[in-house]
Write a structure and sequence with these properties.
elongated, mainly alpha
Length: about 300
């Protein structure tokens, strides 16, 4: 009966959206704009500048996801991500109700709602790895051209066709800035420094600005670019170790969840105790909670090797 009522409530909400011609995407975007565009008092603005509070918990988790979407130029998909999270939240609730396990409702619903955000964080590791590889190629060819002609604009123009996105878009904006907006090259270099979240790239830009003041410093650029090569070599050597926790986690989850149906065939009394008693339902809920906590820890561990200054 509870499942039928939940399905009826979901249908009622869906019908209201259809009758009122409302889009879930627009609703979420409008709500986010309402909370984000709240006017701040002068006191709040001063405190915001002076005291930077570190975000914690779910707020930090969502902020990290938004940063990743911005980095991959997919910020417009955040509304889709929220809707998918809501669907999984409802699905987790329905699954818990179907098992007559009220204790598992908050665990399974919240855990499944966070799965899309965990997926974004996990795929960000592959994006960063690809970005570092492309950045190594781009900085290497541009640096070689700059050492030859001592003109960064000419060096970028010579190699822009051999650079792939997203690094290519950054250097194209640099050329547009210097040719069409402001001829001050140093300002244009400072502008592109924040467009790629990579410490080696920022160090390379700072070194390039110093080289424009003193040409004798141009040979310091090659060692900076070499750091990206070192990161790639170390990353290749440690790749197996980095993804070993993911493999072990998947194996253990399969074994853990596979024991539940196996228990039905081996000892039905144990199975009934696990599924139909209050203690068994509590154990199942704790198990699912441990799986989600472990998943979050595994995703944090599976990050590419990066140079930190």
């Amino acid at each position: 009966m509870t499942i039928l009522l939940t399905i009826a409530l979901t249908g009622l909400i869906t019908g209201c959206f259809i009758l009122l011609e409302l889009s879930p995407y627009q609703l979420i975007e409008n709500l986010s704009k309402h909370f984000n565009n709240k006017p701040l008092t002068i006191k709040q603005k001063i405190l915001k500048v002076q005291v930077k509070k570190k975000q914690k918990g779910l707020k930090k988790f969502i902020a990290e996801t938004i940063d990743i979407l911005e980095m991959t130029n997919k910020k417009n998909r955040f509304a889709t991500l929220c809707i998918l999270s809501l669907v999984l939240f409802i699905l987790g609730t329905l699954l818990s109700i179907s098992m007559s396990n009220m204790i598992m409702i908050p665990v399974l619903s919240i855990g499944m709602a966070l799965i899309p955000f965990w997926y974004i964080k996990f795929t960000a590791a592959f994006y960063k790895k690809q970005l570092n590889s492309e950045l190594e190629t781009a900085l290497s060819v541009i640096t070689n051209s700059y050492l030859r002609n001592e003109n960064i604009i000419t060096a970028v123009e010579e190699n822009i066709d051999y650079i792939n996105p997203p690094v290519r878009d950054v250097f194209k904006s640099f050329l547009s800035q210097t040719k069409l907006i402001n001829s001050n090259v140093n300002i244009a270099l400072e502008g592109i420094k924040t467009k790629i979240d990579n410490d080696v790239f920022k160090e390379w830009v700072d070194g390039l600005i110093s080289c424009r003041d003193d040409k004798n410093l141009k040979h310091t650029l090659s060692p900076i670019v070499a750091k990206l090569s070192d990161m790639r070599v170390v990353g290749a050597e440690l790749e197996y170790l980095m993804y070993e926790p993911v493999k072990e986690f998947i194996t253990l989850v399969i074994l853990l969840l596979g024991n539940i149906p196996l228990m039905y065939f081996l000892n039905k009394s144990w199975y009934r105790t696990l599924v139909h008693t209050a203690i068994g339902k509590t154990v199942l809920s704790i198990t699912v909670l441990a799986i989600f906590i472990s998943l979050n820890a595994v995703i944090k561990l599976s990050k590419p090797v990066e140079y930190k200054s």
